[in-house]
Amino acid sequence: MAGIWVHGEITGDGSLAKLSTEVATLARALAAESGGADVTGVVIGSDPAGAAAELARYVPRVLAVTEPATAEHAAGTIVAQRLAALVDEHDPDVILAGAGPEGRDLAGALSALTGRGILANAIALRGSPDGPVATHSVFGGKLITESALTGGRGIVTIRPNTVTAEPAGSAGKVETVAPTGELAQPAVPIVDRIEAKGAAASIDDARIIVAGGRGVGGPDGFGLIQDLATALGGAVGATRAAVDSGWIPYSQQIGQTGKIVKPQLYLAMGISGAIQHKVGMQTASTIIAVNRDPDAPIADFADMIVVGDLVAVGQAILAQLRERSG
Amino acid sequence: MRIVVLTKPVPDPASGGERLTAEGRLDRANSPAVVNGNDEYVLEKALKLVEAAGEGEVIVLTMAPATAPETMRKALAMGATRGVLVTDPAIGGSCTVATTRILAAALKTLEFDLALAGVDTSDGGAGVVAPGVAALTGLPYLSYAATIEPDAAAGKVRVNRITPAGYDVLEAPTPALISGTQALGEPRYPSLKGIMAARNKEIATLSLADLGIDPATVGTAGATTKVVGSRPPEPRAATRVVRDEPDEAARQVVALLAERRLI
After folding, report:
1. A126 lies in some domain
2. Residue B156: is its pLDDT beyond 80?
3. Which residues from chain B sit within 8 angstroms of residue A154, using beta carbons?
4. Do residues A49 and A95 share a domain?
5. Residue A198: which pLDDT band, with cuts at 50, 70 and 90?
6. Residue A155 sits in which domain range?
């Protein structure tokens, strides 16, 4: 394999996205399984230096491209056009990106511009003589599939928490590269940024998620969910029923029309586990449910279900967690 | 106000009937099709925007097998003006690259102020077709919309894009392509009157030849990806059921967390 590229995603504060460190870690493993392919990171943004240096802890070589337009415009299509030009010029076999909102926007445009196929939302990736093979969970988790790229070349997007990020033994080199190609697609200005009131910790790549459903009973009930999440160092998630009721913002919704998450721990409070929610969280490593109904669907796929009142059980868990951390 | 809504018929996720064919493709014949969930939110928004404008039309654009009009009728019953179906025997098995090319070509045959798509579909779930179509059509692309506010007089549209911190407010000239989320609002149910009216609404069809696309470059023949294996997921360990009083139950929960090094 001639080369594996890793897109390094820049977050709002200019640092490297945690997901990109996981993707970079996976890229090294893929390279080792692919006869020692070269791994190159690419960071494109108005001020890529910090994120590029961070990515160089994970891969031997990083290309840093300064593209001023991303400072005040939606970044996805701009980064995709710059990356497409570099891909056409250097012709790597495989480009890996994160499967979050930014990575999807990027991968979709990059694929269209380069004609390269996409294996989207991989939950595992391995090398083979015919190129990378990606594992997917499909049909609401009823089936695991493995897919390959025609000719072993293309784009793969990786879900958060697929691997634990590990820096390489030695730091890589950052090379500054001038942007090439042209920006044919109109750039979309960001005219304002609105901070959501009480913006909750992001569930996308959270290691621990405490989620509430209809059983939480109201916005006040989410206070306990938030306290549990804080005590565990995790983020707050919710079902669509809780979001539709206006108890918590849509950004925290897990499931079919919300987010798909894969945390180490999923603590489900008052969540029945209907298929629309299950598809968003069933690959969590450990699932613990607290529910009044022992026959709720979640009892079929949780590791543990506590049958009881979620407020009483939740407060008891909270008290014991606080006691431990003392 | 003229709005094109990209909708996809998907196997009903609640039916439990989804499976793969022997060739590793989604068996669409084996499961009842419904309009993709995220597409219904953008369709609802499109209907509201045209109603508010007092003039215009909502065109449903779908690429699917020839049976798709059954699913498209629901969108028409909700209030869409007419449908355009891209269908061709050679399309089956198309990857996202081919799908993107075909939809971009079909979109170019239409006149519109806004093109809307759901952020992803419940079957493939890749969420990459909308940004790809925007790249190929050269349209401004605004994604993950929680709000869509067109200003017809100024020829502009404003979108609140969902970000980890809140929203980025994006503004672009029209025509533009927008991917939207559930935050746009609950879709309406078709009324009986709407269902009756939908029977007589036009669904025009386009073939690959109409779009000038070589059949050999799409479908299974031109696919850039391939399913090479499938298996049932590893069964989860049996569920431990705890029926003790809260304090004792909590002790067992905390013990499990400690055992798995989660605390």
Report:
1. yes
2. yes
3. 224-225
4. yes
5. low
6. 3-177
Q: Would you list the DSSP string of A67-127?
A: -GGGGTB-HHHHHHHHHHHHHHHH--SEEEEE-SHHHHHHHHHHHHHH---EEEEESEEE-
CA–CA dist A264, A121 (Å, integer): 18
H or E stretch including A4? strand A3-8
In terms of domains, do A69 and A127 share one? yes
Choose among A282, A291, A278, A277: nearest CA to A243. A277
**Closest in B18, B164, B256 to A12, CB measured:** B164
With CB atoms and an 8 Å threshold, state whether B225 touches A195. no
Interface confidence, given as ipTM, is 0.94
* Share in percent of chain A as helix, strand, coil (round to 5): 35, 30, 40
Closest CA of chain A from B200, distance in Å: 31
Contact B103, B84 (CB under 8 A): no
Residue A195 lies inside a defined structural domain of this protein: no
In chain B, alpha helices (H): 37-53, 69-78, 96-107, 129-137, 192-198, 208-211, 246-259
Q: Which residue has the tokens 């080369």?
A: A3
**A164 within a domain of the structure (yes/no):** yes
- The residue among A159, A137, A152 whose CA lies nearest residue A26 is A159
Rg of chain B, C-alpha, whole Å? 22
Q: At what angle do helices A310-325 and B246-259 cross, to 10 degrees?
A: 50
Q: Please state the three-class secondary structure of A184-248 as a single string.
A: CCCCCEEEEEEECCCCCCCCCCCCEEEEECHHHCCCCHHHHHHHHHHHHCCEEEECHHHHHCCCC
Task: Please state the domain extents for chain B.
Answer: 2-217
Q: What residue in B sits closest to A197 (Cα-Cα)?
A: B166
Tell whether A160 and A215 lie within a shared domain. Answer: no
Contact at CB, B142 and A188, closer than 8 angstroms: yes
Q: CB of A142 within 8 A of CB of B232?
A: yes
Assign domain B2-217 one CATH number from 3.40.50.620, 3.40.50.720, 1.10.760.10, 1.20.120.450: 3.40.50.620
A122: Cβ–Cβ under 8 A, 6 or more apart, which residues? A99, A134, A135, A136, A156, A157, A158, A159, A162
A3: three-class secondary structure by DSSP: strand
CA A128 to chain centre: 24
pLDDT at A15 over 90: yes
Q: Given CB atoms, is B128 within the 8 Å cutoff of chain A?
A: yes
Query: Is it the case that residue A197 has pLDDT exceeding 80?
Result: no
* Shared domain check, A171 and A28: yes
Residues A136 and A250 in one domain: no
B70: number of Cβ within 10 Å: 10
Answer whether residue A199 is part of any domain. no
Reported as a single tens digit per residue, the pLDDT across A203-213 is: 988 999 999 99
